[in-house]
Amino acid sequence: MDSGTADTTTAVAPHAPAFTTHSPATGEQIAAYPVDGPEAIARALTRARGAQTGWAALPPSRRRDHLLRWKKALADDLDTVAGTIAEETGKPPGDAALEVVLTLEHLAWAARNAERVLRRRKAATGLFTVHQRASLVHRPLGVVGVIGPWNYPLYTPMGSIGYALAAGNGVVFKPSELTPGTAVLLTRIFDAAVPGHAGLLTTVTGAASTGDALARSGVDKLAFTGSPGTARKVMAVCAESLTPFLAECGGKDAVIVTADADLSAAADAIVWGALSNAGQTCAGVERVYAVREIHAELCERVVARAGALRTGAGPDAAYGPMTMAGQVAVVERHVTGAVSAGARALLGGPDAVRPPYVAPVVLADVPEDAPAMTEETFGPVVAVNAVADVDEAVRRANASRYALGAAVFCGGGRAGAAIAARLRAGAVSVNSVLGFAAVPALPFGGSQDSGFGRIHGEEGLRAFTAVQSVTVQRFTPPIALTSFEVPAAARERAVRMARALHRRR
Ligand code: NAD
């Protein structure tokens, strides 16, 4: 057994409690890691604060070069990183490699665009402030705490880590207790690629108690990715100290398919969106609303494609085991509940659940109030329901308490964009699924139970900054309103001028 305790994690006393990670496919133990508590986190925070001062003082071009070196080192080590992700999550190596590739794209974008997005900008002045030069600048927050999930253990937290570092912050990262090895490796590669900034990025390991301690540690913002239930708990802790909080939570993404859509392309995308990574994707496809004319044909195509997939271990499997054993029961409850409420199981059904694997399940005519339609399933299950028209599809898609991603398949891009504009989702792909997640310039995030705030893109950089507004007085104004020396008559004249001005439209 390998000890996961590395010089990149916080120093932990030898007698400190530890936990172990296991292969989701075989149950075999992978490694042991310390359970970091408040003291270890305080040490990590102190180091990060020390390192962040120098990091923030660097010219932006130097920070960019450091981050691009880290990106190159991750690309050089792609096989090792992907191997660790595959080992910890059980996902096929090809999927793990794709996760690293997407992460590299985002890191490159954040590194190359931070200076442009965050540089000082002029602001217009007004009638009584013409004597001022006004500007605003985005300053780093300090040290950001990041709490991550296990389903995309690199790509997802790096949406916060990479952007926070690019914006000049330090980071203390608590990965999921199922995937600490990926985080430790990420930090180790950072330290090797970015010498002279030790402690700027630190991984702390552990489960809920470690995350709770990080939320209480005094970080300058906490970026959380995980389930809405946990988000509520962490946000309540952050509220005690008014620590700013960003929540990237679950989804129940809908796909709308219109009568003139390319059904072959739609079926292909729906199957991938619903089943890749065993359905354990926050913005994965869980609900499909197809107009009645094409519903039967779409179902046929989805079933044919999904039925041809191989589930299991190894590189030729379409997807692997459920990463978190506890999620299997949720999937089973949703499938059983849907079928007993009258849904048709077109492929699979309750017998598809064979832990740690779940074979593809395609359901139709699922009652809208069944848990399979209202709760996040987070498994390889898709419900394909018929609707009378696009209006009904939009209404049903928007009826969820989640609002993360969505997709529209229809004959034309412009018509698709018009439907997208009616959806409450934070991101919509037209004629593809999850297209938005691969475009680093596009912000990502949802609302309601899907959380709030945005990662990625310009908003994702600004999310880890505080705006500072600055005025520089260029000359003494004829009417200095911020002085006790102003004669009453001058003040009254100013009010008359303003009133005359603002009475016009
Ligand atoms: P989870 O909520 O169980 O755990 C998330 C993280 O919170 C883990 O690191 C966990 O250790 C930590 N944690 C648990 N209890 C805590 C507490 N009381 N205080 C502080 N930290 C605590 O979620 P998960 O099972 O790891 O991830 C799956 C969920 O994440 C799904 O709902 C999925 O949709 C969501 N997700 C969202 C996005 C997104 O960007 N919107 C991306 C990936 C996953």
UniProtKB/TrEMBL annotation:
The active site is at residue 248. Residues 1-25 are annotated as: Disordered. Residues 1-11 have a biased composition (Polar residues). Residues 18-470 form the Aldehyde dehydrogenase domain. This is Aldehyde dehydrogenase family protein. One of its GO terms (molecular function) is oxidoreductase activity, acting on the aldehyde or oxo group of donors, NAD or NADP as acceptor. Belongs to the aldehyde dehydrogenase family. InterPro entries: Ald_DH/histidinol_DH (IPR016161), Ald_DH_C (IPR016163), Ald_DH_CS_CYS (IPR016160), Ald_DH_CS_GLU (IPR029510), Ald_DH_N (IPR016162), Aldehyde_DH_dom (IPR015590).
